[in-house]
Specification:
disordered N terminus, alpha/beta
């Protein structure tokens, strides 16, 4: 996939930069669903002073029972109303594509949502160079197929996934920024997705 003007790379990454990206790209009135909230570092650094609303979810550690829920975030998305949120934080060093798909499939729109996604797909692919279930589906190549140097195409793979979300759910990517750690094994994404009101043909 060729990148359009919505795409732009930012170099390197760490905790302060992740927080800076969040503060920079928050919408005017952010209402945040912080999945994988953990000890609340992003809450303290980015959301506490800026969010109009906030709720954290984690199945291992939550930082404040008054504003967080201790549960599996997939279960939370499936069984709770997420329409009031316009910011979704998926700060996981795994590959939270399932949560991303669930959010886009369940949130009806219209309007814009902002997502901060920490994606460890590169780290996973470096370990065995095999195609994951999601990449198999979006790229239409056999699952578990071994492709030498697959991570050279990581950004394109991620972009294809976003096009699949647009095709399935109508959420068009209007902005995509990414950063990465020093080893380029984990990428940090800022995504702006917009769903337009359907018009009735006369």
């Amino acid at each position: 996939m060729k990148h359009n003007t919505a795409w732009n790379k930012k170099d390197n990454s760490n905790e302060w930069l992740k927080a800076a990206l969040r503060k920079k790209y928050l919408p005017t009135r952010p209402v945040v669903l912080d999945l994988f909230c953990g000890h609340g570092r992003m809450y303290e650094l980015a959301y506490k002073e800026k969010a109009a609303g906030y709720h954290g979810v984690d199945n291992k550690k939550i930082h404040d029972p008054a504003i967080c829920t201790l549960t599996n975030n997939v279960v939370f998305i499936a069984h709770n109303d997420i329409t009031k949120y316009n910011v979704f934080d998926l700060d996981d060093y795994g590959t939270p594509w399932k949560q991303l798909y669930m959010i886009c499939g369940k949130h009806p729109g219209p309007g814009e949502i902002t997502l901060f996604v920490t994606d460890g797909l590169v780290m996973h692919q470096k370990s065995n160079q095999k195609v994951t279930k999601f990449v198999s589906a979006t790229e239409q190549i056999p699952q578990q197929m071994k492709i030498n140097g697959i991570n050279r195409f990581y950004v394109d793979i991620f972009a294809t996934m976003l096009l699949d979300i647009e095709r399935r759910y109508g959420w068009k990517t209007t902005k995509a920024r990414y950063s990465h750690n020093s080893r380029r094994s984990v990428y940090y994404w800022v995504l702006k997705l917009k769903k337009y009101m359907k018009t009735t043909e006369r």
